Amino acid sequence: MQMCNQKIMMPSVGFDMPITDLVLELEKLRYKILEGTTHPLVFMQMKSIFHMLESIGSSRIEGNNTTIMDYVESTKINDGSFYRNEQITEILNIERATSFIESVIDDTPITLNFIRELHSLTVDSLSASREGCYTKGDFRECNVRIGGSSHTPPDYLQVIPLMQELVDFVNEETRPKFDLMKICIAHHRFVWIHPFENGNGRVVRLFTYALLLKNVFKSKQRIINPTAVFCSDRNEYYNYLSLADTYTNEGLIKWCEYVLHGLKNEIEKIDRLVDYVYLRDNILLPSMSDSLSNKYITDIEYNILRAAITNERQEIQAADVKALFPGKSSPEISRLIRSLVDKKMLVPVSERARKYVISFGSNYLLRSVLKSLDKNGFLPLND
User: Fold this and answer.
1) Which of 113, 145, 200, 299 is most deeply buried (CB count within 10 A of its CB)?
2) Which helix (H) or strand (E) holds 316?
3) Residue 221 and residue 245: Cα distance in Å, rounded?
4) What's the total number of domains in the chain?
5) Which domain range does residue 114 map to?
6) Domain termination residue (choose one: 230, 257, 272)
7) Residue 212 contacts by C-beta under 8 Å, 6 or more apart in sequence?
8) 118 and 83 assigned to the same domain
9) The CA-based dihedral angle spanning residues 347, 353, 355, 358, taken in that order and rounded to the nearest 10 degrees
10) pLDDT (tens digit, 9 = 90+) per residue, 38-84?
11) What is the separation of C-alpha 152 from the centre of its chain, rounded to a whole number of angstroms?
């Protein structure tokens, strides 16, 4: 029986340590007011793309070999249908769990039941012999080993008290400057406890996302993708977790530095997407050119979509399309717009509205957007 009395602990940090500078820089980002110029509907679509990338990244850490393009081809088919297998379901589950977190986190406390629900969503409909779990939504009632790790998780009889200690730790009122380090420590502690028979890695990254939204980056006008920190180099992630397993001050600090440095880089990078000039010139317009050159769209569709992107309002309506094609009748203009809406390349700004913004619901446009994001360093995965 592996009984363990190791208490959760915050490392001791001095003013002259690099981690102190990291915390201060992240605190500036935390309270920075993003004066975004990107249309809210366009921004929310970009956010959805990063949720997808986060879900793929989290599953890839666990050995899922689905590529970004595999997933897009399997789930974003224009007729609304999609091909589903075990690996696709695993990613879809993480997407759903991420959406669940965003929908409830403002009014939901971090509790054992909340963590159990994350696990239930994560392993739903997955084979227990593969990436699912025989005890969906329940803490383990057996002892486990972590493959490739020298750490042996605590005895299953200790799981509930240790998890309650973790929940108390993350809910404890502390000075704001410690919030980010607490999340780093909580992430490691969760992995160290290994509270579930399977799915611990996927759940701890969702748990980390929930903590960041609840305690640090509360603005909905921000894209937070902590999984990008971990999935860019899986071996590095595990190596730093192993350093934290030593529970030395040095080991815990190195782990926190690794997480915070990666988080800072991701936030600074993704924050650029709220600047519409940057998004337009570096992502959207190159994406339209790529779609045209690959014959995903016609010349007429390209001109309409480009007009929607370059319009000062970031919207387009029938009069704008008429200006592009003065020789076409009003019914012809309406059919062109309706065709793009049906193909999920335009979306109304509201129900029954006759103004539209660019849409990435088409897997053809989404392919090109992902290419542009990759070219500009936004994709952490090596596909």
Assistant:
1) 200
2) strand 316-317
3) 35
4) 2
5) 36-272
6) 272
7) 183, 224, 226
8) yes
9) -10
10) 999 999 999 889 888 888 888 888 888 888 888 888 776 544 455 56
11) 29
R_g (Cα) of the chain, nearest Å:
23
Residue 43 amino acid letter: F
| Amino acid present at 316 | I
pLDDT per position as a tens digit, 226-282: 787 777 778 898 899 999 999 999 999 999 999 999 899 888 888 888 899 999 999
In whole angstroms, give the CA distance from residue 32 to residue 216: 12
CA–CA distance from 317 to each of 230, 299, 339 (Å)? Answer: 43, 18, 14
Say if 331 falls within a structural domain.
yes
Strand partners, 316: 356
pTM score, whole prediction: 0.87
Question: In 17-151, which ranges are E strands?
Answer: none
**Helix orientation angle between 86-104 and 68-75, rounded to the nearest 10 degrees:** 80
Burial class (CB in 10 A: 0-12, 13-18, 19+), 240: buried
Neighbours of 327 (CB within 10 A): 6
Q: Residues 317, 291, 82, 227: what is their CA dihedral angle, to the nearest 10 degrees?
A: -100
SS3 state at 258? helix
CA distances 142 to 195, 203, 248, Å, are: 10, 19, 28
Position of tokens 């939901």? 108
> Alpha carbon 325 to chain centroid distance?
40
Tokens of 232: 């860019």
- Domain annotation covers residue 150: yes
Tens digits of residue pLDDT in 93-142: 999 999 999 999 999 999 999 999 999 999 999 998 888 898 999 999 99
Strand partners, 277: none
311 and 188 share one domain: no
